[in-house]
Amino acid sequence: MPQLNPNPWFLTLLMSWTIFSLIFQPKLLQFTTTNPPSNMNLTTTKTTSWIWPWT
């Protein structure tokens, strides 16, 4: 079963992750997000309890 032999595939995996880490990842991280997170004010609202008509 040749697919269990890691010799030809380990180098391919290693090279592809090296290329991804060194070339593509910094290029992808340069993009800015369209909606940057902002500081939201945490306000508490007073809620009224539900009035059940059958009680």
UniProtKB/TrEMBL annotation:
GO CC annotations on file:
mitochondrial membrane; proton-transporting ATP synthase complex
Q: Where do transmembrane segments lie in this chain?
A: 6-24
Instruction: State any single GO MF term.
Output: proton transmembrane transporter activity
Query: Chief location of this protein?
Result: mitochondrion
Single GO biological process annotation from the record: proton motive force-driven ATP synthesis
Kindly give the InterPro entries that the UniProt entry links to this protein. Answer: ATP8_metazoa (IPR001421), ATPase_protein_8 (IPR050635)
Bilayer topology:
Single-pass membrane protein
**Name of the protein described by the UniProt record:** ATP synthase complex subunit 8
The protein's gene is named ATP8
